Amino acid sequence: MSKEKDGVMIGLECHVQLNTETKLFCGCRTQAEEPNSACCPVCLGHPGSKPVLNAKALDYALKVAAALHCEINKEFFFSRKTYFYPDMSKNFQITQYEIPIGLEGQVVLSTGKKIRITRVHLEEDPAALVHEAGMAASNFCLVDYNRSGIPLVEIVTEPDLSSPQEARDFLDQLTTILSYLKVYSATTGTLKADCNVSVYGNSRVEVKNVTGKKGVEKALSFEVARQKNLLLNDKKIVRGTRAFDEKTMTTKATRTKETEDDYGYIVESDLTTIHFSKEEIKKMRENLPELHAAKAKRFIKDFSLDEYTANVLANNFTLGNLFEEIAKETEPKMAAKFLTRELMAVVNRSDLDLDSLQLNPEEISSLLRILSSQRITEKVAKEAIIAYLTKGTKPMQFIEKGGLAKDLTEADIEKAVEKVLSENRQAVADLKRGKQKSLNFLVGKVMKLTRAKVEPRIVQDLIYKKIKGG
Ligand SMILES: [Zn+2]
After folding, report:
1. Residues with Cβ within 5 Å of ion ligand 1?
2. Model pTM?
3. Euclidean distance between CA atoms 195 and 207, whole angstroms
4. 410-469 architecture in CATH?
5. Cα of 16 to ligand 1 centre, how many Å?
6. Is 447 within 8 Å of 456 (Cβ atoms)?
């Protein structure tokens, strides 16, 4: 009965919200607080209302298809999928079926394994069904049409993933690519996936509508264990659809899945067919921004980082950008080490979201400069970064308030002056020619480097002394 050799086979259908300002087929806002405040006849599904395609959403989906190395169709169109639930009041969803935007792409995991992408297409999100807590939830349910018509890009994989950890790795790679393309926001956008799982060649089970990367990993871990357990006890795995309950961390059977035929797709005749020339598609590919694999290579080349560190930095869009900013002001290798070890340790330990922290690179640069001048210990630097990330306390304030920095000796100031003079030869030459502005510039650099309450006059005197001596 069981075929051990097939192992675990997982395929994902990911629905990712594109971060456009307006919805897919109307001009309603995608971000709104008050329920049912961002809707119109189109996204409410009123008879006679006509959809108009959001050009930006199309552009974003094309970028996704290109970045996932898909074949992009020169001609594609939209279809109506029969959908009879209260969250889609026009009783059909506008999606793509027969010819999607992109076909046959791939995503490379951190291990180097290639996961095949079956298709990439664009579709509208249904409304949100809200089960109010504290009310008789079984009696009624509220519908918020603010969500109705939000643009989603659907990314479907082949069943190439062989563990829940691999599925998580895939989603990490995917969201990194989407962040680099600037088409997805982890803070305001949603990511949901339907997860298809089968073990040892037995029947396939679909766990529907799982939210978030962590959710997918957890749901799959439970489902794989459940199926293996059934087989161990000589029980059959029933083909069907299940729902994941985050509270109990279990999956339970829901309605049997309709087949694609049941959806009765018909062509959406209110939207025109979209055409692209070969040249336009080629141009699209050439205009893709630098993605994480290329960025990691650049970090290795430009900053002599090791491969592991470069990948850790580049695989996180926000972390990579933070590093590039900080590397301008500090020693890059030291900055890379501090960010990947100390900073990310705090992020992971406290389960923080780097995007929503909105860290100021200048604050971290200051901390690293004072650390490299050895006026604070590594222990103090670690404490300062913990305070910054978890409480928002600026590192320099943390150090000053706690009196944690050693005072500068005269030798320290002299060293700083020497460093600044050697790094700013043009300004030194200008000053020698009597350009007063250069003096202010150099003093400023020394003050920034030392971050200490040094009298500017002392610094000025030292600069003159060095220049005359040199
Ligand atoms: Zn609308």
Report:
1. 26, 28, 40, 42-43
2. 0.74
3. 5
4. Orthogonal Bundle (1.10)
5. 19
6. yes
